Amino acid sequence: MILSMNTERQPQFRPTKSPEEQPISDDILTIPNVITAVGGMLSLYGINNADSLKGMAALVAGELSDKLDGSLANALNQRSKLGIKLDPIRDKIVGAAALLKLSQEDPTSKAMVATIAGLESTKAIATAVAECKHKQLPGEREPLRPTQAGRVSSALLAATTTLLIIGKSAESLGHQKAAKTLKGLGKLSFAGYLPAAGVAAGQYVKRARDLMDSNQK
User: Fold this and answer.
1) Polar residues composition bias: which ranges (predicted)?
2) For residue 148, is it within any domain?
3) 12, part of any domain
4) CA separation (Å) from 88 to 39, 55, 129, 144, 171?
5) Domains of the chain: total
6) Buried (b) or exposed (e) across 172-190, using 16+ Cβ within 10 A?
7) CA 89/CA 42 separation, integer angstroms
8) Which of 3-7, 130-134, 160-164 is predicted with the least confidence, judged by mean pLDDT?
C-alpha cells in the first residue's frame, strides 16, 4: 500500500521536445526573426566600418546575435518557416560581404577567399537544387534544414572572417600584438572550417542528387 501511494505521488517525467520535433509556424514577425534581421544589418555595418571601434563592436554584436536566434527560437517555441530560410540567407549575404572586404584589404588572403567562395558556392547551388526538387515532391513536407556539418562550417566561417577583419583593423590602428593574436585565431578557425565545409558540401550535393532521383521515379 505504501509502495503504491509513493508511486502515485511521483511526478511523471515528460521529455522536452527536440528542435526537430517542435512545430514550425507560418509566423513572420517573431523575436528570433527580428534578431536575425537586425543582427545581419549590424554585421554588414560592422564590415563596412571595421576601421573604427564602433564598427568592430557592431560586427561582433551582429555575429553573436546570429548564434542567439536559433537557440531563442527553440527556447520560445517560435520556430518558423521564414526563420529556417532567413538564417542561411543572412549568413550568405554577410559572408559574401566579409569575403569581399578581406579580398580588398588583404591581398595575401585571396587564396583563402577563393577556397571559401568555392565551397560556399557548392553548398549554395546544391541547396538551391534540393529546395527546388523538394517542393516538387507530393504532399506537405518539412522544410529542408542545414546539416550539422553545415551549421558548424557556417559558424567557423563567421568566426574566421570576423577575426581576420578585426585583426586587420587592429593592425591599422597600431595594435600590432592584438592584431597578430586575432589573425592567428582567424587562421586557426579557417583550418577547422575546411574539413567541416568539405563534408557539408558533399552532404548537400548528395541530398540534391537523391531528391532529383526521387522526382524521376
Assistant:
1) 1-15
2) yes
3) no
4) 13, 23, 15, 11, 31
5) 1
6) eeeeeeebeebbebbeebb
7) 15
8) 3-7
Q: If you ran DSSP here, which 8-state letter would residue 137 be given?
A: S
Contacts (Cβ under 8 Å, ≥6 apart) of 80: 24, 25, 26, 27, 28, 30, 32, 33, 73
Question: Does an H or E element contain 175, and which?
Answer: none
Give me the CATH number covering residue 130: 1.20.120
Q: What cell does 67 get?
A: 548564434
Average pLDDT of the residues of the chain? 83
Do the beta carbons of residue 157 and residue 193 sit within 8 Å? yes
> In whole angstroms, what is the distance from residue 59 CA to residue 39 CA?
9
Percent of the chain with pLDDT strictly greater than 70: 84
Measured CA to CA, the distance from residue 44 to residue 58 in angstroms comes to 9
Q: What is the pLDDT of residue 23?
A: 64
In terms of residue numbers, what domain contains 55? 27-216
70 lies in some domain: yes
DSSP result, 20-59: GGS--B--SS-HHHHHHHHHHHHHHHHHHTTTSHHHHHHH
Residue 100 above 60 pLDDT?
Answer: yes
Q: Is 103 a member of any domain? A: yes
Q: pTM of this prediction?
A: 0.78
